[in-house]
Design brief:
This protein has 2 domains: 3-91, no CATH class; 94-209 and 245-386, 3-Layer(aba) Sandwich (Rossmann fold), CATH 3.40.50. Helix content is 43%, strand content 14%. Helix 1 packs parallel to helix 2 and helix 7 runs parallel beside helix 11. The longest helix has 24 residues, at 28-51. The chain is α/β, with parallel strands linked by helices and 401 residues long.
């Protein structure tokens, strides 16, 4: 017995093979037995479905009953259907506010991907973007629709998107791109999305993302110094397997929002972004970046079944070396002291945004926190926040209770 999600226009009468079908129902006592058993079965099903937040249920048809029993049961089912049709629709609070999606095969996200044929994957820096892009290149290569993969982060430059559009007749069904400081590509994909478009935003909490970005920027600085065989402007010292960075150089990189440091969600998820979402109601899903591998398996199923699991790896992690990065501290009591970059970040973590004014231009952070709150409550950390569900129901925008 299964529940039907709200909005189904008709009840389904499901044939079930159960032992109760052996009764012949040739006399009144048998009919009464059938009546009792059927009503108990329906009551249990209805109770379970109501607990799950559904407003209809599938009833069991005892197909092997004698004609009298079949007539009786049809009457029971018909009356139950008519009664349910006049009830107020029931939806649970979680169904109204979360839009949680399963990443299992034949689950919610799988169903969405079967319905919405054009998929955009957008993300800030350090939110599984490199692996999403590598997967997309391999995926679209298998279908010979690689034009939009010819330019890295193609959505950020209109001229590159124009060139990609003209390059081939057939367009890729999957496009993945980091979004830079200017969130216009996010606005554009939402405003121009068709009824068959699904937009996926790979999400990472900003402080966690910032910590990872700082490590990436420092790693790049050390690699550059290694290439130049020595110190860089007195700020970096290189030895085999070791890189020492003066604290002032680290602080300067953060203050200037160098590289990936400045490509965060506070630039993307603003009041204007949420206005665009509410004005256009795109089919929009937030997925936690650590669920990238699970999502890619579903994407492969619908867009490139020949792509193997070996392609779907975290390529960004493979690029990073295990160089030991240390910070040479400044200040009256610490001058010249060496600490690991990880220890420095652990000590400074909570005050980074405040000290460097990193969220100066942020807006509607309460809304972002509401979305994050709901996202992390989802078992598979995947949340649809706008558009239509697979069954066609309008998704309610998340708000914290």
């Amino acid at each position: 017995m299964k529940c039907i999600t709200p909005g189904k226009e008709k009840f389904h009468l499901l044939t079930s093979s159960i032992d109760l079908c052996e009764t012949t129902a040739n006399d009144h006592s048998d009919v009464e037995k059938v009546r009792t058993m059927v009503e108990a079965k329906v009551a249990r099903a209805e109770s379970r479905c109501n607990r799950q937040g559904y407003n209809t249920i599938e009833f069991i048809v005892l197909a092997a009953f004698a004609p009298a029993s079949i007539h009786f049961y049809s009457e029971v089912a018909w009356n139950a259907e008519a009664e349910a049709a006049h009830r107020e629709p029931k939806t649970s609070a979680s169904a109204e506010t979360t839009g949680c999606l399963s990443l299992d095969f034949d689950g919610d996200m799988d169903n969405l991907l079967s319905k919405y044929k054009q998929v955009f994957i957008e993300m800030p820096a350090k939110a599984a973007g490199t692996t999403f892009k590598a997967f997309t290149i391999a995926c679209m290569a298998s279908t010979n629709t690689t034009s939009f993969a010819s330019f890295d982060n193609v959505l950020n430059r209109k001229e590159n998107a124009d060139k990609s559009f003209k390059q081939q007749l057939q367009m890729p069904s999957l496009i993945a791109s980091h979004v830079y400081r200017n969130p216009q590509p996010i606005y554009d994909t939402m405003a121009h999305a068709t009824e068959e478009t699904l937009i996926v935003y790979s999400y990472r909490e900003e402080t966690s993302r910032l910590i990872s970005a700082i490590k990436q920027v420092l790693s790049t600085i050390c690699k550059r110094a290694e290439t130049e065989s020595g110190a860089v402007s007195g700020a970096v010292w290189i030895a085999p397997g070791e890189c020492q960075v003066q604290e002032w150089k680290l602080l300067e990189s953060i203050r200037k929002k160098q590289g990936e440091i400045g490509l965060g969600i506070t630039q993307h998820l603003t009041c204007k972004t949420y206005e665009v979402i509410k004005d256009n109601n795109p089919n929009l899903v937030f997925v936690h970046y650590r669920k990238a591998s699970q999502l890619q398996k579903l994407l492969a199923k619908h867009h490139c079944p020949v792509v193997t699991s070996e392609v779907r790896v975290n390529t960004a992690a493979a690029k990073e070396k295990n160089t030991n990065i240390s910070i040479v501290l400044e200040g009256r009591s610490n001058n010249g002291t060496l600490v690991s970059l990880n220890d420095w970040l652990d000590a400074k973590r909570q005050l980074l945004a405040l000290n460097f004014d990193l969220r100066k231009d942020a807006s509607c952070q309460a809304t972002t926190k509401d979305i994050q709150y709901e996202l992390l409550r989802c078992p598979d950390e995947t949340l649809q926040i706008s558009g239509r569900s697979y069954e066609g129901h309008k998704i309610q925008f998340p708000s914290r209770p």
